[in-house]
Design brief:
The protein is an alpha/beta fold. 30% of the residues lie in helices and 21% in strands. The structure holds tricarbonodiimidic diamide. Keywords: Hydrolase.
Length: 237
Amino acid sequence: MNTGPATRQPASRTLRIERALPFPYEFDIARTALVLIDMQRDFIEPGGFGETLGNDVSLLEAIVPATRRALHAWRQAGGLVVHTREAHLADLSDCPPAKRNRGNPTLRIGDEGPMGRILVAGEPGNRIIDALAPLDGEIVIDKPGKGAFYATGLHERLQQRGITHLLFGGVTTEVCVQTSMREANDRGYDGLLLEDCTESYFPAFKAATLDMVRAQGGIVGWTAPSTELLAVLHRPS
Ligand code: TIU
């Protein structure tokens, strides 16, 4: 059922984030979606996929308050919200052996862990964290790859709605977020990464990704702190 502010089609309204890098970012709320990548328990809480890979997952939690504020403001403005989850079918038919067998994790994709089967759709660990839980009417994409566009139909769904611009947040910055931004870039979207709404298990990789995105005149897209987004959303039109 579609209810609540998430389903309202916002009126066309062009906003401009002056302090975006490498130069100001202009977008029409009616043609822009906020895309939150993989803010699921598997990556953010102990006992999930992130930890089985040997990572300290506590770093990622720090972005939740800023991401929640951005999500709330975007919902208030009536903008389209897309949530993704890295998720595989229970029979793992969409998980290539190359992905499952990579590295030396303590638990592999599909194995039973403290939050259910690792990275499997419908398991407790695969749920988006409560603070950012999707509302009815928001798009929720289960993606078998790192990128949000691979084998998901997301591009078609965005095209149906006339979306041309994407604001990105989520985890991890250099893996699923950057892959999704690059996929979006190749499909013709103008993407902006909200700097304080994304995090990596490796702070240096986050910093490098922000630099890579905005280098060469925005070769992948733009970056800006979420406070700049909030400021333009709250400014009277
Ligand atoms: N391992 C890691 O940094 N990330 C992933 O495996 N998936 C996402 O980034 N969502």
